[in-house]
Amino acid sequence: MGKCGIILLLLAAFAGFIGFKVKNALFEVPELPKLEDTWWGPRDPSREDKAITPFKINVAEDVLKDLKHRLDIIKPFTPALQGTKQDYGMHPDLLQKIINHWKNKYDWREREKFLNQYPQFTVSVQGLRIHYIHIKPKNVGNKKVIPMLLLHGWPGSVREFYEAIPHLSKPQEDFVFELIIPSLPGYGFSEAAVKPGLGAAQMAQLFKNFMDRLGFQKYYIQGGDWGAIIVQHMAQLFPEKLIGVHSNMCFVNTPLSNMITWFGAFFPSLVVTSDDEASKVYPLACKYSYILQETGYMHLQASKPDTIGFALKDNPAGLAAYIIEKFSTWTNKDYRDRLDGGLQEKFTYEQLLDNIMIYHVTGSITTSVRLYAESFNKAQMSMGLSNVPVTVPSGCARQTHELNVPLEKTLRLQYHNLVHLKDYEAGHFAFLEIPKVMSEDVIEFVKTVEKMPKENIKSEL
């Protein structure tokens, strides 16, 4: 063989090697990671109290007096630059209006009664006392009782579901939900891990064990924000436990899905299903610019969570500004250009301050933001879960004003059994913004799955 033949042979071998690597990167499904039942809590594992304990929110009066003092001594805010609205973060006039409402109109003891209206409990799982709301249906008759686990995210809490609970707990023609709504570990009234490593994948395992502890063998799951990531991981890791998974932030991040999305930037007609979908996803430059504007917090929380925790834990005004800002611009990016942040278009100050109070009175802001550092790291990424498909029956609700709206084509690459997909004019906090609509979406999804032949569901598992 001459020199030319050798060179051609080497080039062919190199091209074959590159092709093999590209094929693996685009299509290979990695093995599922084997997660240990890590003990995350501060107590001795041999003395774990497995009892389910009734729980009521009852904040000590000293905590409320301290909060009042801190709100009373706030120094004047730095004036905004001329002509700005929410461009540089929350406008000081808007924050002052919220603080005045907090001091003069917001009544925690009344709000405490509101938050305690549903039965709450705690139970120990992997060393952590997990707080949860548990609503069991009454007088069900011949209706099928369907367990539904609902998971919130950051900067939310179980408060996001309160307006949806009456809609979700309403009996349907053939079934009624049994609702289980926990606070994520390190959020609100749930204990936080005392050692590193409790990321989204480990939380998926913890909530599988949580449902086992409560006696549920098969159930539906629903999530948004971090809750969406956790329920996706539950569907990937423990499909045998699930009847179906619903998400209002279906997440896709694979090399192939990204390639298709980028390809659509040049030839959108080849990847979109409608002009309406095209307007939600493209032009990519504008969408990515918006994401960059809104996700500076993510880099900070993924790299230095405790630093921002120190800044916010004993600073109620700062905590309110940091969190409530997200309920403005994540609900609709156009609210950035309004002095009032558009907040009362979709929410009440009581709703927003309830959520802030849950973080403040429990001192959980630091432990909540650690979830970013525990999930955006080499150990989590090396699991390859983003390349593992979801095979259980799945439902996705897409919101027009969500920070990132995935294409249907890429969703179907991740969710192999996507039986329900609908779009809504809403933002990131969909269950708080449009509780009735989101509840109806979940109910419609469950009705679809319940009508599916059981052998088909099993074959997908």
UniProtKB/TrEMBL annotation:
SUPFAM superfamilies xrefs: alpha/beta-Hydrolases
EC supergroup of this enzyme: hydrolase
Active site, per annotation: D225, Y372, H428
Membrane-related topology note: Single-pass membrane protein
Pfam families to which the protein is assigned, alphabetical: EHN
Alphabetical keyword list: Aromatic hydrocarbons catabolism, Endoplasmic reticulum, Hydrolase, Membrane, Signal
Catalytic activity: 1-(4-methoxyphenyl)-N-methyl-N-[(3-methyloxetan-3-yl)methyl]methanamine + H2O = 2-{[(4-methoxybenzyl)(methyl)amino]methyl}-2-methylpropane-1,3-diol; cis-stilbene oxide + H2O = (1R,2R)-hydrobenzoin
InterPro entries: AB_hydrolase_fold, Epox_hydrolase-like, Epoxide_hydro_N, Epoxide_hydrolase
Record's subcellular location: Endoplasmic reticulum membrane; Microsome membrane
Any one GO molecular function term: cis-stilbene-oxide hydrolase activity
BP GO terms, sorted: epoxide metabolic process
Signal sequence annotation: 1-19
Function: Catalyzes juvenile hormone hydrolysis.
Protein name as annotated: Epoxide hydrolase
Organism of this sequence: Brassicogethes aeneus (Rape pollen beetle)
